[in-house]
Every structure is written in structure tokens, then in C-alpha cells.
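Record filed below.
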Amino acid sequence: MQRTANPCMPVRFRPWPPNNSKMIESLTLTDFRNHKMSRIDTNGARNIIIIGENGAGKTAVLEAISMLSGDKGMRGADMTDIARFSGGGDFSVFGKTDDDDTVCVYFNAGAANRRAKINDENTSLNDLGNVMRIVWISPKEDRLFVDASADRRAFFDRLASNFDSHHSGRTAKFSKLLTERAFALKNGADAKWLDALDDQLAAAAVAIANTRVQYAGEVNYFLKRFSVSVNGMVEQTIISGAPAAVAEREYRNYLSQNRELVYDKMVLDGPHKSDFGMFNNELDLPVRLTSTGQQKSALFDLILAHTDLLHTKTKRDCIVLFDEAAAHLDSAARAKIFATLENTHTQVWATGLDASSFDDVPGAVFVTCHNGEIHSIL
């Protein structure tokens, strides 16, 4: 039995069929950021450490890997900004997994978006999420629990997407529908148009909220010192035990009763306003009220719980990206996190300025990066 965001409402895991692990055996970047052509062979290692000065192209390697999940990438950059400045405007990221599958994300100058291939066959970006399970922590997440709710929402939604490959698509669709609804209201659209938009919004809202509530409850099972909560209008309806059809009808009624613009703006509650949080059970405090070090500890505990949940449900390994990992952890904490990950079902890619900061990382492959080139294996 698992706890949901409401500990009084337990649910059971619904395991997926077992799958082979998907660790990266080799990675090739072509015209990606400042990398003209870079290749890294992991030699089966579980810990890959990329060392280099600032601007060397270390983070670009992690950003490239993050895109293999079908996501826009850990920086969320425009595709034209990612393509190497002196290249032709194209780029590609090609990965070979430890079971000889290949995954590729590429962009052609002038195209509207990236494209993807699995084993040389064209596929959707959403399908990549069924092959590569990737999570990441960058310096941006240092203030995750105290900055805007939009950042937390995006971070937790990314984690939840590892279990529902359509989740990110639904959130994007919901945002697009909100824009269409605002346009319709400003232009005096008839009731039939608004009814159709509200029907679609309600269906998407409940699907998004269901995924969030289920993820929060299941990851809590693997968290000991902390617990995750999700707060939002539709999420609370689901947590209260209402069936999906009832939650959808209630939100649909709410939308139909709120069709007025306030100062030429549409003011609505819903999944786009929801928030996530963590609670420190030992200190009996919300994590946002604890020290910076304790907030970092909560974040890393969440990632560990996430990888445990992922393997329990899918029998798959997870790729974890730590950008400037040494900046997040002192030596003792760093040794602990890597030792723990070594005994879990993960492959870790981390960046840093100094190799000596990772002397305590077991079985690591060290790669040096300089001016967008991979020079050697240390």
C-alpha cells in the first residue's frame, strides 16, 4: 500500500511490464552548443564525471543527454540557440544504450521543432520518454523551494513524466487551450466555442492532476525524512476521493461560471496554478523554512526516492544528471550520495571544475572537456 498526497487515502502500485535497462554506452554530439563533434564512451561505467573550466562545454553534454528524454532540455533553450554558432544551424545528439538500442534527437535549420529517432526509425518526442528515464539537478534548483511556484511545478512535472510519457504533452496542451480561451473571450466568441474549449480544458486538467497526485503518493513511500505534497484546486478534488468524472464535471462547471475578463485578463484557477512542496518530518517544518543545506538534502533525497520508485514500477534504470555537483554537496554529503546511487539502479553524469573533488566517487570514468572538445579519459 502506498501513501498519496493525502496520507489517509492509500493506493496500490500498478507496476509496468518489466523492461531492459537503458544506460548510455556511448554519446555523440554534433554541432551542439560549442561541440563540433564530441564522443564519449562510458565503457559500462555507472558514474561519468566531466571535468573542465567554465565555458568548456561540460553543461552542454548534460543538456544534450537531457534532450534524449524527449524534453526540451535542462536549459529550456530555443533550438536555434543550441545549434553551434559557426555550424549550419543543425545539431544532433546520438546515444547508444547498453542493450544496443540507439536514440537520436536532431534539429534542422528552419524546422519548427526537434525530431527523434529510435533505432533509426522516425518517432515522436514523447516516445523517447518510454526509452530514456532522465532526471537532473542544476544550480538553478538551489532555490527550488523558495522561488516561484512555476519552477517547482515544472520540476515535479518533469519527475512525474517519467511515469506518464503523455504528462508533459497534456500540460503543454492545457497551456495552449488557456491561450485560445483568452483569445475567444477577448473577441466575444459564442457559447458553443467556449463550451468546446472548456470541455477540453476540464479533461486535460483532471488527467494532469491525477498524474501529479499519484506521483506524490508513490514517491512518498520511498521518502523517510521528508514527504511530498501537492496543492491545487483540481488535485484537492481528486485527493478528497472524487472519481475522475466528478472532478472533471466540477472543474467544467467552474470554467463555465468564470467567463469574464478582469482588466482584459482571464483569471482562472487550475493545474497551471498548482504547487508542490516538501515537508521535513524530523524538524516538523516545511522544507522552504529550513536551511539551504537542508533544502539541498531534501532535493537529493527526492531524487533517490524517485530512482527507487522508477525501478520498482518499471524495472528500468534511471539516468541522473548533476550539473556542478560539487557546488551542491560538501565532501561527506557527496560521498554519501554517490555511494547510495552506486547501490541503486542509476547511471550518473556529473560535471565539476576539479577532478579531486570526485576522488571519493566509486568506479568513475573521468572525461576532460576543453573548448567544446573531449580530450581524454583520466
Remarks:
- The two ends are 46 Å apart (CA to CA).
- Residues 1-11, 15-20 have pLDDT under 50 and may be disordered.
- The first strand starts at residue 24 and ends at 32.
- Residues 32 and 83 are 5 Å apart (CA to CA).
